[in-house]
Each structure stands twice: as C-alpha cells, then as structure tokens.
Amino acid sequence: MRQRTKSTTGFDYQVLRSNDSWCDHMARTNVTAALIAWMLPASVLDPACGDGSIVMLADRIKPIDRVAFADVSKPNCQALISRIVGYGRSIWSEDIHDTLRRDEHFDVVVLTEVLEHLEDPDEVLRMARSRGDRLIASSPEMRAGQQDDNPEHLWQFDGEGYLQMLMDAGWQAIHKTHMGFPWLQYDFQVWVCR
User: Fold this and answer.
1) Which of 64, 114, 137, 188 is deepest in the core (most CB within 10 A)?
2) Alpha carbons 185 and 8: distance in angstroms, whole number
3) Is residue 6 part of a domain?
C-alpha cells in the first residue's frame, strides 16, 4: 500500500529539530546509524539531515572519510556547524533537489524519515540513485488498523508499497529492519539498498 494522506505541502521546516526528543526517535537513530556503519562507507550524503545525529553517530561507530550534510532548515544547518568537526565535512543549507543535483558521488545516500514528507518521493529516489552506490531509507510503516495522522506526512506506506517504490527507482533491497512501537500510531521500517 502506498497512498496520499490528507496533508498538504507548505509545512514550515524552518525550525530547529532534534532526534533525541522522543524515545522512538533515539531507537531509530541508533538502528539506522548502526546499519550505515555496517556498510563501511568512505563517503556519505545525508540530503535531509535534520540535526545530523544519525550520520554523526554512524561516524562515531566507524569513522567516515567524507560526509555531506544538507537540510532545507537553516536553523538545523546553523546548529550543525557547531557540532561537526574535521576535514571532509560539508554542510549545505538547501532543498533536497538542489543537493541531489550536485555533481558529487557518495558510497551511501541517507534518506531517513524523508520520503513521506515529499510531494514526489519517486523523483528523489531516482536522483539519489545517480548520487550513491547504496541507500539507507526509512519511514513509518503502516500496518492493518494503523493510521498516520502526522500533519507533515504527505504519504503513507506499508512495507510492500515502500519496497515497490524503491525498486521502481532502480534500488535493490538487501536488508529491512522492522521496528514496532506499541505506544505509537504506526510501526517503522529501515531499508538498506544497493
């Protein structure tokens, strides 16, 4: 299943966000970072990085030579500047489409909690395919009886719908982690693709 929600575009993303606000965010950050580190990338692009915590944690687990963080939120990018150090780190404050149009290639592209927010997630997945050898992507996973009432989400997916979207963009799934949180209105899925 893949279906459009009742939400509309135009949500204000110019706010400072943190992945350590909720227990489920912290659990998802840990799992996703561990999967990135497991792929042993020399370079990573996170074109909608939020607070950058997922790739920063992956870098602490297994150092990454070159990382590009990008986000449409200027406050997130400003906060990130003070948190990252070292050679081989870039921060771009721009739209995800502009980031994916840059003529740079990475071992891994990270699209965590991104595609459900986009008007055209298929286009972004195709663009990411031309920028990376591997992909880690995640979103809420709707199951029978679950409903996504998040006003920022334009799309909702079950596991099959998400997998089909990945394959249609040219990605081959090699791993899926399913996370169920009993207190949330939906489960969560993390995909590793090549």
Assistant:
1) 137
2) 20
3) no
